[in-house]
Specification:
The protein has about 150 residues and is of the alpha/beta class. It has helices spanning about 20-35, 95-100, 125-135, and strands at about 45, 50, 60-70, 80, 85-90, 115-120, 140-145, 145-150. β4 and β5 form a beta hairpin.
Length: about 150
């Protein structure tokens, strides 16, 4: 009787010798294409001086609004509201607050703190209007940015 020879088993392995090169190329690609955010303000504001200063404890709960004259003179001479990336109108503040609350964990949604950086020359009427709109969206923790009066 004739016996059959067993076929040799071939291992199909993927070579990982070029893996460090691939990882390096991907890292280099993302470093080159990443955009570094500049801290360019859309509005000009001079922070007023204060006698007593309190600091917020949890930095992750803080969202900033800036109120001042537009940095671009073509936009006029009236104070504008900015969240740092685009301009907001008074009637858009409720929607903005709701969007910002959506980025927070569920347990902290009602604890969001809004820091209002307003120019000292901005009239209190605009600040009061902003406060009213923030109340509509139940954003009641508002801090006013100031410098210590030395």
């Amino acid at each position: 009787m004739k016996s059959f020879k067993r076929k040799t088993v071939v291992n199909a392995e993927i070579s990982t010798a070029s893996l460090p090169d691939i990882v390096f190329l991907l890292l280099f690609f993302f470093m080159v294409t990443a955009v570094i955010r500049t801290d360019e303000n859309l509005v000009k504001y001079e922070v007023p001086k204060a006698k007593h200063i309190n600091k917020a404890e949890m930095k992750t709960l803080i969202r900033e609004l800036q109120v001042g004259l537009p940095a671009n003179a073509r936009l006029g001479t009236e104070p504008l509201i900015s969240d740092g990336s685009h301009y907001l109108k008074i009637n858009e503040l409720v929607q903005w607050v709701n969007q910002e609350k959506a980025t927070l964990p569920e347990a902290y949604k009602d604890q969001m703190i809004i820091v209002l950086k307003a120019d000292e020359a901005v009239k209190m009427g605009l600040i009061a209007d902003i406060q009213q709109e923030l109340r509509k969206s139940n954003a009641r923790k508002v801090l006013y940015r100031s410098k210590e009066n030395i």
